[in-house]
Amino acid sequence: MRLDKYLSESGIFSRSEAGKAIRSGRILVDGAPVKDPSKHIAETAQVLCDGKPVIWSKYQYIMLHKPAGYVSATEDKGRTVMDLVPPACVRLGMFPCGRLDIDTTGLLLITNDGPGAHNWLSPKHHVAKTYRFTCALPLSEEARLRMEAGLELGDFTSQPSQVELNAPTEGEITIVEGKFHQIKRMFAAVDNEITSLQRIRFGPLKLDESLEPGQWRYLTDEEIHALQTVHS
Ligand code: URA
């Protein structure tokens, strides 16, 4: 691939900034300076910018601890989760993989891996998502068991879920689908109400508790590998 494309897809430069950096001699490829932005290099080449390695990969993956008040979309009238990650993410075509409601916090994957996102969000694949919740009223055992068994919600019946309580109005719920307002609707169906919701698990990914709301980090190689092995 072209050297300027390699650099811009690595997220450190726009295409025109990459051209300038290359022409000014800041880039070494496999130990030799390259000043031609159109020079083709191997994906496996060792590229240094100002002496620091630049790693290209086909897709990028970010874990965001979504705070309340941000819409899970790339564009909206209000603030979006893309306002919380580096501007290069938008340029690289990254988007939130799935949606959390504006008042839901927690783990949100942001990636430009379209085929992967399609796979992880497909209802066929039953990717488990776990949320910490608090609810307005104590959740009775009868209501908990009804939620676990699956509830008739009008336009669909929820699939079996797991609901564990740590206190009468607090616990964790794991669902394997992701219908609009699903958990809020499940609680409403048992005459209760969600008062806070935080996603702590998405398939093999666990929310990194060292991330404060609004902070993000790149996924580790192990996390990317675990995601890539999710299938039906
Ligand atoms: N279920 C909801 O009701 N809201 C979310 O944000 C996620 C799951």
Describe this structure in words.
The chain has 232 residues and is of the alpha+beta class. It has seven helices and 13 strands. The chain has helices spanning 3-9, 15-23, 88-91, 114-121, 141-149, 182-189, 221-228, and strands at 27-29, 32-33, 47-49, 52-53, 61-66, 95-96, 105-111, 129-135, 162-167, 170-175, 194-202, 205-206, 216-218. Strands 5, 6, 7, 8, 9, 10, 11, 12 and 13 form a nine-stranded mixed beta sheet that branches. The protein has a four-stranded antiparallel beta sheet with strand order 2-1-3-4, with no helix packed on it. Strand 11 (194-202) and strand 12 (205-206) form a beta hairpin. Helix 1 packs across helix 2. The relative contact order is 0.15. Residues 100-101, 104, 181-184, 197 line the site of uracil.
